[in-house]
Amino acid sequence: MATITVTPDQDTVLAEIHIAAPPERVFQAISDPNQLKTWWGQKGKYHHTQIECDIRPGGKWRSAGAGDDGKKFEVSGEYLEVNPPRLLVYTWDADFDGGTATTVRWELRPHEGGTLVKLQHSGFAKQPEVSKHYSGGWPTVLAWMQAYVETGETVETRKPGA
Fold first, then answer.
1. CA–CA gap between residue 152 and residue 97 (Å, rounded)
2. Homologous superfamily in CATH for domain 16-43+80-151
3. What's the confidence (pLDDT) of residue 162?
């Protein structure tokens, strides 16, 4: 289970989770568009229809999808740092969060036979209420990724509400 905190200034969401797999495997899950599309989402909530990644510093990424209500969404950004299998940093611009340009940082460290994942999502100072949305969402996303990496669970096989 992920631990989650928000910095006192509401600028940054911090999360940690232990994954029972090596950093190389976790890095693949968070950087390969085919794998991302397989695990990131939930029946009854939303699903991705397209994910594109040019995974190199300066490369662009884009994800598009729809909620079960049919409402479409898009999230995109640019890779700032790519150091497999230890670090992945990119900008995050979601059409559903008021235009707040933010940064997501994934740090992966070998830990107790697996990987300690440290996620930092920052840049909410101008819209601190948006950080509350993400502090509620990232634990779910990290749990989905953990289940995918550890057991092969996908959007299609995951039980609703899991």
1. 30
2. START domain (3.30.530.20)
3. 60
